Amino acid sequence: MARARLVGINHVAIEVGDLDAALDLYARVFAFELRGRRPTMAWIDMGDQFLAVSQGRTQGPDVHRHFGLVVDDLGAAQAAAEEAGLTVRASGRGGIDFRDPWGNLFQCVDYREIQFERTPGVRRALGIEALAKSASAQQEIAERGFAG
Q1: Which residues of 18-53 are buried (b: 16+ CB within 10 A; e: fewer)?
Q2: Domain containing residue 31: CATH number
Q3: Does residue 5 lie within any of the structural domains?
Q4: Which of 19, 27, 71, 83 is the most exposed place for a label (fewest CB within 10 A)?
């Protein structure tokens, strides 16, 4: 029987108690454009992926469940999250974790430090063409057979 191969993530969906407050908070931490907006739903653009934010949290705070975001400047993300009043802690692979007021656990890593790669068109659209992968990320890319 044929099975479909997992090839990526189209989007991650999170729930918040107040959509406007969440978008305000996230805009203090990250630079982003909205892909779309409805009264209780918004889509934060990440090139060819997006973060779907829905008003109406239905469960308690996440304990270990989290989602990982790749950022172009981890230091800036950490400083902005702290400035926004969020508690930031170190996470694996040199990243950071923080929880929003609705219990969503964000884990951020720096694009330059991981094997995750974007196509030239998406890099251009996101304005990250000048970001170079670190030696360790390049090695991981080569070991996984992802090098061009």
Answers
A1: ebeebbebbeebbeeeeeeeeeeebbbebeebbbbb
A2: 3.10.180.10
A3: no
A4: 83
Q: What pTM value is reported for the model?
A: 0.93
Q: What angle do helix axes 74-83 and 19-29 make, rounded to 10 degrees?
A: 130
Distance CA 50, CA 112 (A): 20
One pLDDT digit (tens) per residue for the chain, 148 residues:
999 998 889 999 999 999 999 999 999 999 999 999 999 999 999 999 999 999 999 899 988 899 999 999 999 999 999 999 999 999 977 999 999 999 999 999 999 999 989 999 999 999 999 999 999 999 999 999 888 7
What is the number of domains present in the chain? 1
Select from 29, 131, 33, 28 the least CA-distant residue to 78.
29
Q: Count other Cβ atoms within 10 Å, centred on residue 16.
A: 23
Question: What residues are paired with 92 via a beta bridge?
Answer: none
Q: Which residues span the domain enclosing 90?
A: 11-57+64-143
What token pair was written down for 32?
């982003």
At residue 28, φ and ψ (nearest 5 deg) are -80, -20
- d(C-alpha 121, C-alpha 147), whole Å: 17
